[in-house]
Design a protein that fits this description.
Elements lengths: L6 H34 L4 E8 L2 H11 L13 E7 L3 H13 L1 E2 L5 E2 L14 E6 L6 E8 H13 L9 H40 L10 H8 L5 H11 L2 E3 L6 H7 L5 H10 L1 H13 L5 E3 L2 H13 L3 H13 L3 H14 L8
Parallel strand pairs: 2-6, 7-8
Antiparallel strand pairs: 1-2, 3-5, 4-5, 5-6
Helix pairs in contact: 1-2, 4-5, 5-6, 7-10, 10-11, 11-12, 12-13
Length: 352
């Protein structure tokens, strides 16, 4: 049934229908502008949604609150955009970017994160009303975290949408769930902050050479590789044939060094130092059989690991296991292990 509207509201609704194509165009343009702005600022978000208010939704609003509006430009949420962040802390980061991008209508903006009424408990969202440049209209931009977004949708579906008065026992249970989501949201942000601080401390320890204090894991090994710990060995090996060094990822060697019992970066540094000469001797034999003028940067760490394995009695099985970890199990790894074992047994470092 068509809603009964005042003449003023009918005029606003007619203006809306006339401007609808413009709102659709503005929706796409503003969404692209915001996405590009966030991308340029290095801000990663979980989602970016937009909508133009439907005719029926606007008619319902005018039926209830039409007396408040003189023209379509007085309605601030005809066009809406929602930015969903991964973490609650990022809501303020996004807000700062929006403030730089648009003129914010502070009088009509609201930070619902500061509301603590019973019926708004758990609904935490930042709403900016922004002026669209060179236009009489405004856009409402909502910013909230992924868990805040999940709660808003759940509350909307179980409460607001039902049209029924919810018994207090259900409200209490919903508020308990809201509290759990808020706590989880807070803890995710807290954990991220702690991890960031941990990485900074590790970077400081690595850069100052305190490698024994740095536990070996993916992050620390990646940071260690940035110091080019195998660079000196690779350059010496490349000089045998005046070869060019082709850089490849050395992250697969994390599993190798862990398999060798390394617990800290200091353990790896000692292995490099102790088996540097043995790795070079293996390379001299390898390069002497070829005239290759290009070598991968993995040659250094591979030969370090081979020298360590041979010197510590790993034998053919140890060498095969090394190649199995690096390349996946294969019969060719058995032949490679036999070949290396046969040739390396006479190298000087094996008899020292």
């Amino acid at each position: 049934m068509k809603k009964l509207l005042s003449p003023y509201s009918e005029a606003i609704l007619n203006e809306y229908l006339e401007q609808l194509p413009l709102f659709k165009t503005m929706e796409a343009q503003l969404k692209t502008t915001i996405r590009d702005c966030l991308s340029d600022a290095g801000i990663h978000v979980a989602g970016l949604e937009s909508r133009v208010k439907t005719e029926s939704s606007l008619a319902g609003k005018l039926e209830l609150k039409g007396y408040k509006y003189k023209s379509l430009a007085d309605i601030t949420d005809i066009l809406g955009i929602r930015v969903i962040t991964f973490y609650r802390d990022d809501v303020d980061v996004v807000a700062s970017a929006i403030e730089r991008l648009f003129e914010v209508d502070w009088e009509n903006s609201v930070d619902k994160r500061k509301l603590h009424d019973l019926d708004s408990f758990g609904y935490l969202s930042l709403h900016y009303v922004c002026r669209i440049p060179d236009m009489p209209f405004r856009v409402e931009i909502q910013m909230r975290s992924l868990l805040q977004h999940a709660w808003a949708n759940l509350y909307h579906d179980t409460g607001y949408k039902s049209g029924l008065e919810i018994p207090k026992e259900y409200i209490r249970n919903m508020n308990r769930l809201a509290g759990m989501l808020e706590l989880a949201d807070e803890q995710f942000s807290h954990i991220r902050t702690e991890l960031t601080d941990y990485r900074r401390r590790v970077q400081t320890l690595v850069s100052t050479g305190n490698l024994d204090d740095v536990l070996l894991d993916g992050d620390t090994f990646k940071g260690y590789l940035e110091l080019d710990p195998f660079g000196q060995l690779n350059r010496r090996i490349a000089a045998i044939n005046q070869a060019e060094i082709h850089e490849v990822s050395l992250m697969p060697y994390l599993a190798i060094f862990k398999n060798m019992g390394c617990k800290t970066l200091g353990d790896i540094a000692r292995i490099i130092k102790d088996y540097f000469e043995g790795a070079y001797q293996i390379a001299c034999f390898q390069m002497g059989l070829t005239d290759l003028d290009i070598m991968a940067s993995s040659v250094g760490p591979q030969n370090i690991c081979i020298a360590y394995t041979l010197k510590n009695g790993g034998g053919k099985a140890g060498i095969r296991n090394l190649f199995d970890i690096l390349n996946g199990p294969s019969e060719s790894n058995v032949m490679m292990a036999e070949f290396i074992l046969g040739q390396a047994k006479d190298l000087p470092f094996m008899n020292q």
